[in-house]
Write a structure and sequence with these properties.
Blueprint (H helix, E strand, L loop, with lengths): L2 E5 L6 H11 L5 E5 L6 H6 L10 E3 L5 E3 L1 H11 L10 H16 L2 H6 L7 E2 L6 H21 L12 H15 L6 H12 L1 H12 L13 E2 L9 E4 L18 E5 L2 E5 L2 H9 L5 H8 L1
Parallel strand pairs: 1-2
Antiparallel strand pairs: 1-3, 3-4, 5-6, 7-8, 8-9
Helix pairs in contact: 1-3, 1-7, 4-6, 4-7, 7-8, 9-10
């Protein structure tokens, strides 16, 4: 079945990021519905996802709505056990659930002081003692999980799981506010920043809709610390190498130039999200490398 998924602004809605990653990184089919934060868009959208009052929310084929990312993870895992949303190993699964639950209910100081904003990175933010305590606790539970399971790779419980989904917004906050964390914690943050799905979400967030004034902070800005995108820019004229959009298959009408080559897309959003980070998009890279 194909699910209906409601989200908010990609640049700012950390809970929406969680919900989207549950579909994107576990290859589950969905139709996306977006409501702008701090506008009538969101309550209007959520009328179709009653009784939800927040995003993300999903609607099942029979019309049942599931709200809250923890409930969404459990419901999707029960319906798609082959997807690997939770680890198969019982010990790893228990630890992953422990991690996700603590993230879900804790770290209020970090959330309040550092709201997610994927459009900017700061270098002058000074965390409070409460934020430092949250960061220390987060690093501890990450290290403890990996030690308990003997994990060698980049993710907390072996293969990428819902536990990693729940901490993706934490990685975004550490990156965006220049937070100082341990070497092992930074390596885990870097894994999220390099995750292709996270890069696609951020690329879309950079170009999708206006800035939200609520998230503006008067700190010194700096470059985003994740992988540096290949330089690209939109152009008005040119002959694209591809006749159809790599995402929709529709005729190319909007143009982008990268490495002296011109490519076409079916609309401004398809073009602009690719300009933001060309390497994040497998559909584009397939034609770029061909």
């Amino acid at each position: 079945m194909t699910y209906d998924l409601a989200i908010g602004d990609r640049a700012y809605s950390s809970w929406s990021l969680r919900g989207w990653l549950l579909f994107e990184n576990f290859s589950l089919p969905y139709r996306l519905h977006i409501g702008r934060l701090y506008s009538d868009d969101l309550p209007n959208l959520l009328r179709d996802f009653a009784p939800s009052r927040t995003v993300p929310a999903i609607k099942l084929q029979d019309g049942t709505v599931v709200t809250d990312t923890l409930a969404m993870a459990e419901e999707l895992a029960s319906r798609h056990p082959e997807a690997g949303i939770w680890p198969k190993d019982p010990k790893a699964r228990a630890i992953a659930r422990r991690l996700a639950a603590e993230m879900h209910s804790s770290f209020g100081a970090l959330r309040e002081a550092c709201p997610m904003n994927l459009r900017v990175a700061y270098s002058s933010f000074e965390p409070s003692e409460e934020v430092e305590a949250d960061l220390e606790r987060i690093a501890l539970i990450w290290d403890t999980a990996r030690a308990e399971l003997g994990v060698d790779g980049p993710w907390l419980c072996g293969a990428y799981s819902a536990a990693d989904v729940f901490f993706a917004p934490v990685a975004a906050r550490v990156a965006g506010y220049g937070l100082r964390v341990s070497e092992s914690a930074q390596a885990y943050v870097d894994a999220h920043l390099a995750d292709p799905a996270f890069r696609r979400w951020r690329a879309m967030g950079l170009v999708d809709g206006p800035d939200q004034p609520f998230y503006k902070r008067d700190f010194t800005t700096c470059d985003w610390p994740g992988p540096r995108p290949v330089a690209a820019h939109s152009v008005a004229l040119g002959t694209p190498e591809n006749e159809t959009c790599p995402y929709s298959g529709k005729p190319s009408t909007h143009l982008m130039e990268v490495s002296g080559r011109t490519f076409g897309f079916c609309n401004a959003f398809c073009r602009d999200k690719t300009v933001a980070d060309p390497e994040a998009w497998p559909g584009f890279m397939e034609i770029y490398q061909s």
